[in-house]
Amino acid sequence: MSLSSLSALQTEIFHYIDAHQSDFIELLNGQHLPLPPVILGELGKDPQNLTICFYGHVDVQPAKKEDGWKTDPFTLTEINGNLYGRGATDNKGPVLAWINAVGTFRALKRAMPVNFKFVIEGMEEAGSLGLEKLLEEEKQGFFSDVDYIVISDNLWLSKKKPALIYGTRGNACFCVEVEGGDKDLHSGTFGGIIHEPLTDLIALLDSLVDPTGHIQIPGIYDAVAVLTDEEKKLYESIEYDIEEHKNNSGVKKLLYSTKEEILLHLWRYPSLSIHGIEGAFHEPGIKTVIPAKVIGKFSIRQVPNMDLSDVKQRVVDHLENVFAKRNSPNKLKVSMPLGAQPWVADVNDPLYKAAKRAIKTVFGEDPDFIRDGSTIPIARIFQTITQKRVIMFPIGAADDGEHSQNEKISRFNYIEGTKVFAAFFLEIAKLRGQLHETSNPGTNN
Predict the structure, then answer these.
(1) Do the beta carbons of residue 290 and residue 194 sit within 8 Å?
(2) Are strands 331-340 and 77-79 parallel, antiparallel or unpaired?
(3) Which of 65, 156, 299, 404 could make an S-S bridge to 173, C-beta 3.0–4.6 Å?
(4) Quick one: pLDDT at residue 434?
(5) What does the angle CA 362 – CA 359 – CA 385 come to, to the nearest 5 degrees?
(6) Torsions phi, psi for 153 (to 5 deg)
(7) CA dihedral defined by 134, 303, 148, 394, rounded to 10 degrees?
(8) 119 to 58, 143, 305, 382, 430: CA distances (angstroms)
């Protein structure tokens, strides 16, 4: 099914569709453009049924055939059982799979076992601008009767084995600025007699992380949750190919040698990455200049229990302490322009158990319970604002290539994914009576 049929199918299936026009975005040239509307839809208002709400997005990353695509990225093309096209797995495919799952009950003339709502936006790839405001406005309206929220905007860790995601890392992005004089200087005239800003900055960046990947900022690991035996067991059965991951990265060696160590440090321990230096000469050739001001950029992928304000303060204290020991007259400025919170759910929640049963029914095996080392702010935002339980329920495989050339979703995953979503409806229907027996989802994770 092509995306062009989405509107017609929505009209056929859903009794209520509402396009919420969000805010405006101001471009660098001062022009104001309206944000795309967020689509809210629902089917069923039976007070005896539980209500699940699916979130998805239909905006995509840019793509051109000359980027290395073997097909037109905006014409869905099937080759050897794979459906190629930009957004095939991120996130148009899962959006249509959910709608087709609803359509299955209609085609079979069976009553929906749950009340179903959806939220479909068009700004996810740009940070979901305007969505948080909409959630605040609708938390006592559209979301007031929602019991569970489902996000299918992720991938399995394996090419073949299904997975459920129960956690993501956050992301705290930092800029550390060192400024000397008011202009660049000639290294032949001033080299060796001044405190060079770039030398100071290199020392600061070098102090952040050691060769083993351990973050050297004092106290940064204090709030990291202790690994329990129950969680440790989850890693034993996870399907993960170390060699494939290493080959995909193009590196010769990873920091850790076992599956468990790699996944633990990718998912539930923080990491620090240095991304670049602004203001330094970076073009081909030689330029013997001493830059007057340089800005180093790095980020910390923080994990549950790590507080953003605490992380920021520890980073600032550490860098100021290192800088002070250099006795440099240059000026130091540290800022955190972006901070996104981590998210974690309880794999023993009835919601996850229902999804596990649905997967076992369709795929014939239990799923891997995995985390995601990247940051997906929307899960935390939904949970914090609506106070509803959230589950990440992917159907895309590890080799789908989201954001890359030749993005695809396999025909198998698309069809079986539609089946598993329909089975999930039936499993959710069995949870009536259990909803209020579990604790509040909370936001302090």
Answers:
(1) yes
(2) unpaired
(3) 299
(4) 67
(5) 140
(6) -125, 40
(7) 100
(8) 11, 10, 29, 11, 24
**Cα 313 to chain centroid, rounded:** 25
Q: Which of 42, 90, 121, 124 is catalytic?
A: 124
CB atoms within 10 A of CB 89: 29
Q: What whole-number distance in Å separates Cα of residue 443 and Cα of residue 445? A: 6
Contacts 24+ apart (CB under 8 A), 435-443: 435/50, 435/147, 435/350, 438/349, 438/350, 440/387, 441/345, 441/383, 441/387, 441/388, 441/389, 441/390, 443/380, 443/383, 443/384, 443/387
Tens-place pLDDT, residues 270-285? 999 999 999 999 999 9
**Is 147 an active-site residue?**
no
| Structural tokens at position 141 | 């309206």
pLDDT tens-digit map of 187-239: 999 999 999 999 999 999 999 999 999 999 999 999 999 999 999 999 999 99
Instruction: List, as own/partner pairs, every contact residues 190-198 make where C-beta atoms lie below 8 angstroms and the sequence separation is at least 24, other chains included.
Output: 190/290, 191/290, 194/290, 195/326, 195/328, 195/329, 195/330, 196/290, 197/290, 197/291, 197/292, 197/293, 197/294, 197/330, 198/277, 198/280, 198/290, 198/291, 198/294
Report pLDDT for 440: 57
Q: What is the pLDDT of residue 9?
A: 47
| Segment 320-369, tens digit of pLDDT | 999 999 999 999 999 999 999 999 999 999 999 999 999 999 999 999 99
- Quickly tell me which residue has 């102090």 as its tokens: 207
Closest CA to 173 of 315, 61, 293, 306: 315
Q: Give the pLDDT score at 435.
A: 57
Other beta carbons within 10 angstroms of residue 9's beta carbon come to 15
Average pLDDT over residues 154-183: 95
Asked if residue 145 lies in contact with residue 51, where contact means CB atoms within 8 angstroms, the answer is yes
Least Cα distance to 358 among 150, 131, 127 occurs for 150
Select from 89, 87, 102 the least CA-distant residue to 41: 102
59 is catalytic: yes
Residue linked to tokens 């994914």: 417
Q: Which whole-number Å values give the CA distances from 62 to 44, 255, 402, 414, 421, in the listed order?
A: 36, 33, 11, 23, 29
Question: For the residues of 304-340, what is the DSSP string, one character each?
Answer: TT--HHHHHHHHHHHHHHHHHHTT--SEEEEEEEEEE
> Cα–Cα distance between 42 and 45 in angstroms, integer?
8
18-32, 147-161, 198-212: range with lowest mean pLDDT: 18-32
Give CA–CA dist 172/303, Å, rounded.
Answer: 11
Residue 422 to residue 97: CA distance in whole angstroms: 9
Token pair 């494939």 is at which residue? 244
